[in-house]
Amino acid sequence: MLAAGALSGCAGSGREEAVKSSSDALLSGAVRSGDVPGVVAALTTPGETIYQSAYGVRVLGQPAAMSMDTVMWIASMTKPVVGVAAMQLVEQGKIGLDDPAARIIPELGTFKVLDGWEADGKPRLRDPKAPITLRNLLTHSAGFTYDIWNPDMARFHKVMNVPRTSSGRNVALRLPLSFDPGTRWEYGINIDWAGKMIEQVSGMRLGQYIQKNIADPLGMASTAFRITPDMRARLAKVHARGDDGKLTVTAFEVPQDPEFESGGAGLYSTADDYQRFMRMILNRGRGNGNQIVTPQTVDLMSRNSMGNLRVRVLPTQNAALSRDAEFFPGQAKTWGLSFMINEERAPTGRSPGSLAWAGLANSYFWIDPTRNIAGVIMMQILPFVDAKALALFTAYEKGVYAAMA
Description:
This protein is α+β, with helices and mostly antiparallel strands. The protein is built from ten helices and 16 strands. It has helices at about 15-30, 80-90, 135-140, 150-160, 190-200, 205-220, 230, 270-280, 295-300, 385-405, and strands spanning about 40-45, 50-55, 70-75, 115, 125, 240, 245-250, 270, 285, 290, 335, 340, 355-360, 365-370, 375-380, 380. The strands form five sheets. It has a seven-stranded antiparallel beta sheet with strand order 2-1-15-14-13-12-11, sandwiched between helices. The chain has a three-stranded mixed beta sheet with strand order 7-6-16, with no helix packed on it. Strands 3-8 form a two-stranded antiparallel sheet. A hairpin with a 2-residue loop joins strand 9 (about 285) and strand 10 (about 290). Helix 1 runs antiparallel to helix 10 and helix 2 (about 80-90) packs across helix 6 (about 205-220).
């Protein structure tokens, strides 16, 4: 089933019509060919949505059509939202960006570094050489990693019988560090811990804090950890692509009564809601008539915050959940306070200094402050960086820049 593309509030612009024409053809073609069951995409400036389209269905084999208000698991696109929440508390002087995080959560001062394996197969641990800070957590340089991409952490989970973070259990966060804080970039459970810092300082559950201080002020009415009945009526299911290339519907859902709400991957949202968040960043902290963070905080979040460290490839340890993952191989990429930053012009046309990241079920966004545009494309397919889903995102972004040239 195809849904008509819609161009919002921008009639008459040749560039905007070119974006609509190329993007509609691309997205509808991907659904028609069976590459994806459904997809939603949008493009915004600081002032308005200039393109939005929804094609296909929410659940393969069912008639409900994708739409701009279709609710999807945004996985790691949760992280920048939580990053903004943490920086609100930094602005208020309640968290020090470079203070030891153990001042707020003492447990963060107890973690050891995984330093190899004993002869009996048990992990060998040592003390870290530096304390973990909020900056480390927001830049993925604290030492925490994900078992999906780190072989030692995958082995640790198996040997020590530790559940994955998707379980929603607190024990899933009690993992050793893979390296000393501040010495390397590697993607991990860091922002789950940043979320716990927010809870400790605010005295609120993470979802409550985000709703009060980010979602409600921005008008993000369908963004939450818990799926309300209204959201469930618009929910798209996560699909999985098998080795034979065929898509099947999965039963995956973030735990709805977890011990902790995952600041790293727990939110559900819509493309329309996420546009509001991106537009706030383009407007240097202001959205929907509310100042969410100061312009200076957005500037700080938008700069490299990990010095000489660089983003590296994530080699898969679980092909059902992710392929090897790296955006723009061969190009230098740094990390701001919860965003990836490309240091060079990307092959898609994305300007140097743009902000971006993605979610495990193949949702992607980028924010280009130089060109004053931000784009999002959302699917619900595993594994991450699935070849067809990634190709669709790449072609969509490339088409946007070509149309606006």
